[in-house]
Amino acid sequence: MPNVIEISDFAAPELDVYARLTENQLLNRQEPENALFIAESPNVILRALDGGCVPVSMLLERKHIAGQAAEVIARCGDIPIYTAELSILTQLTGFPLTRGVLCAMRRPKLPEAEEICTGARRIAVLENIMNPTNLGAIFRSAAALGMDAVLLTPACCDGLYRRAVRVSMGTVFQVPWTYLDCAWPVEGQELLHSLGFKTAAMALTDNSVSIEDPRLMAEEKLAIVLGTEGDGLAEETIASCDYTVRIPMSHGVDSLNVAAASAVAFWQLRVR
What we know:
The protein is built from twelve helices and twelve strands. It is an alpha/beta fold. It is elongated.
């Protein structure tokens, strides 16, 4: 039988993870072994479980216990399942629950960059992407459009930020990813080159080549480098990449949002 606990006290400390802890507090840099993240909706939680993430507790609308959360509950063992009516849960969390289900989970240990790039042919490198909605959308495109791995520079937002996980539809648990633990771009580019990758900076410059350039598709191993919202890639990054690549535009439009650009780039440059 599931360990269902009816919520009677909004101030109960076991509910802090859902109602009062910030993303930085969940990350818990001082005690990484106790760090948590929140997964929302049954499908996302199932993908997290498939990815090996360990559940700690759940918060859900009462009607979902025997409904759309039944499969999730069956896979989560005897963890506490806190429940109430939707109106009460909305008061507790401060926002309507996505499909009425939240799950607090242990943060998995991230792999080394070399580990996830071994055997990969197409990877995405994200430089200082700080918007979690964009980050989640890029992960979803990476999963759908043939990227083997995603590397984040240290200034990127957290890949397990609640909104990033939700927007990714749980694909953040399907595509191998990690943070680069070396200086970017110089040492990071050296690492990628040592692993056999050519690097392609997505940027508008006078010498950028079209994304349709056959040399790009001919590369055995290619790292597609995308920059932060607004400013794009740093000049040093562009200068150190093997290619600078543009997406041809119409109607006087100069560029796409980084999430949209990622989808175009991943599709065009995928391994065929």
